[in-house]
Amino acid sequence: MTGKERRQQLLDVARALFAEKGFDGTSIEEIAHRANVSKPVVYEHFGGKEGIYAVVVDREMHSLMDGMTEALSEDAHPRLLLERAAGALLNYIEGSTDGFRILVRDSPVASSTGTFSSLLNDIASQVEHILGIQFSKTGYEPKLAALYAQALVGMVALTGQWWLEVRKPKKNEVAAHLVNLAWNGLSHLEGKPTLRERG
Description:
Layout: H1 3-25, H2 28-35, H3 39-46, H4 49-73, H5 78-95, H6 97-105, H7 115-138, H8 145-166, H9 171-184
Helix pairs in contact: 1-2, 1-4, 1-6, 2-3, 3-4, 4-5, 4-6, 4-7, 5-6, 5-8, 5-9, 7-8
């Protein structure tokens, strides 16, 4: 293997172990054993467990943030932006289950500190900006955009954490129900909500 290939192999092995056992339950010895290398090879590439963990977490955060940013970047009706944001998180959970497990294991959604919480705050800031514009247009108090942004992002993130384990109903149904609650409110829930935009 080239140095680059070996580094990627070690990251893949470590990512799987961190998802399965968490940071504390994973050792350099186990990473080296699963990668079929000696411990010094792992130290040479990453300096230790903290180093490889930091790279894994950083990559996962960028992957999720990129998906969310893309979902919220286009100018569209607020309901479609909500659909896209919910879909982006659920797509990430489905396509990067190990990554999501790593992010929420040591920094759960309900926590006020940690990498995942800071990521959610970054996403909430983007949502706050979008809501602030919409609130101004419709006569709502723009100062409340921050509160609503935190509520929406928290609702989607907690639901995503729950869906990670149960995987029922299907992803698009989960997104449709999230949008149903967020868009219509409890007093106007649709009986069979659907997404206006598929994908």
